[in-house]
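Quick one, T. Sequence first:
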Amino acid sequence: MIRNLSKKTIISKRPLVAVRFFERGFGMIGRHFDRFDAMVFNDCRAIHTMFMTMKIDVIFTDRENRVCEIRKSLDTWKPFVSCPQASSVIELPRGVIAASLTEKGDFIDLNANPTREEQEKYLTGSIIAAPEAALPLKYGYRKK
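Structure tokens:
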């Protein structure tokens, strides 16, 4: 789970950490946010949206997990999108940044686990959460 600590909102419940060469190289090309709701690239400062079929939201974070750059509704076919201060990049479905109230300067937790109170709020729908966002971000999520 990815949580915005500054705003106390959920950014992602089912993130996928891109670890393998092809996951990192292709990212969201030919994919949709159906089995996961965020793609995380650690040790990354730049992405591209070449060959993608949908606009995405992008969050760049520094080594302290502070949001250092945000790109809402990033267009497809952008050959180079970067943030020199970034150490991680999170690609999200369009609209998640606004829904989670995330802004530049916010601190996020890339490996958050929901509290019992939050789990109850998810069930009642009384917490602000990203759409289609529920597994811890440890080694990535893979549905077999």
